[in-house]
Write a structure and sequence with these properties.
Strand content: 25-35%
Radius of gyration: 23 Å
Mean pLDDT: 91
Order of helices and strands: EEEEHEHEHEEEEHHEEHEEHHEEHEEE
CATH topology of the largest domain: Metallo-beta-lactamase, Chain A
CATH superfamily of the largest domain: Ribonuclease Z/Hydroxyacylglutathione hydrolase-like
Bound molecules: zinc ion
Length: 324
């Protein structure tokens, strides 16, 4: 499972960060999901290898503009590329109202069916391309949701005891059996891969959250959570409860409690500057968020940057990849 950040700023874009958008690639094929689509998400996609031709579904976490104003442009450009396959759009009911209004007012013709699924009806588990989707309701000024993506896979592991019992000689035959091929022994006996391999069921799970001031709502036993950390605690206190965002401290503390193995923070307030090359930052810096999160969380922590890609391996290890 691969996740690419297309925008990591909260509310407004900055010179270094666009507004929210995350691409999720699952499995071996080229199909992918888009979670949120802030303005200029399609511009950010031009800097990746992802094509909207292979986009299976767009999930919108909530109706705020920094999470959905890029949708009309993306849908229009996708039509201009001649797409004919259905594109699924999942989100709160107002997303449909917003898109229907733009389509009508701007005389937009889509070359493909756009099938809208209200997130409220998706609350029951549903699967796309073999990925199970679960919806979690969050706490924000408007209805906001997290999407949990679960990929169930089977893998096989050679059982040495069984290989020895059946007298399969160590060497190339072991490799063939591991690859799922049956082999014939010297005495003519056929050994089937199922006779000597144990089948392991593995599930990789990622939760990608919309805006939320109660991280405990998504405290689940998964491999990775992507959560907003709009402020540090001091700024969150100054701003007050109004915007209903989380601080680095509140997010980190909740996920430390449940021993979450991997946490990626994103959606940073534009007031947190990227660190200057000479280290000469005057105001609040993104390092303040990192420092505060590290004080309260001891797992594998990352602060997302635009166009960063992370891969969640089959063993549940999160690796930061080179930029696209
Ligand atoms: Zn919001």
């Amino acid at each position: 499972m691969k996740i690419t950040f297309l925008g990591t700023s909260s509310g407004v874009p900055t010179k270094h960060r666009n507004v929210s958008g995350i691409a999720l690639e699952v499995g071996e094929n080229k199909n992918w999901f888009l979670i949120d689509c802030g303005e200029a998400t399609q511009h950010q996609l031009l800097n990746t290898k992802l094509s909207t031709r292979n986009l299976s579904a767009v999930f919108i976490t909530h109706i705020h503009g920094d999470h959905c104003y890029g949708l009309p442009g993306l849908l229009a450009s996708t039509a201009m590329s001649g797409r004919t396959e259905t594109l699924y759009l999942i989100g709160p009911a107002k997303i449909k109202q917003f898109i229907d209004g733009v389509i009508e007012a701007t005389d937009l013709f889509l070359t493909y069916p756009l099938e809208f699924l209200d997130v409220e009806t998706l609350k029951k588990d549903r699967s796309f391309n073999g990925i199970e989707i679960n919806v979690i309701e969050l706490s924000h000024r408007v209805k906001s949701y997290a999407y949990q993506f679960s990929l169930n896979e089977q893998s096989s592991k050679l059982n040495i005891e069984k290989l020895e019992t059946l007298k399969v000689p160590r060497g190339p035959m072991w490799g063939e059996l591991q690859q799922g091929k049956d082999v014939r022994l010297e005495d003519g006996v056929i050994v089937k891969t199922l006779d000597v391999c144990d089948v392991l069921n593995q599930t990789r799970q990622i939760i990608i959250c919309g805006d939320n001031d109660k991280p405990e709502l998504v405290a689940r036993d998964v491999d990775l959570i992507v959560h907003e950390s709009t402020y540090t605690r001091d700024i969150a206190d100054k701003v007050g409860r109004g915007p209903q965002h989380s601080s680095a401290k509140s997010v980190a503390a909740v996920f430390e409690d449940i021993k979450l193995p991997n946490l990626i923070l994103t959606h940073f307030s534009a007031r947190y500057a990227n660190v200057a090359a000479n280290g000469a930052n005057k105001g609040p810096s993104i390092l303040d968020i990192e420092k505060e999160a590290k004080e309260h969380y001891s797992g594998n922590l990352f602060l997302a940057d635009d166009l960063d890609t992370y891969e969640l391996s089959k063993s549940g290890e999160l690796i930061k990849c080179r930029r696209n």
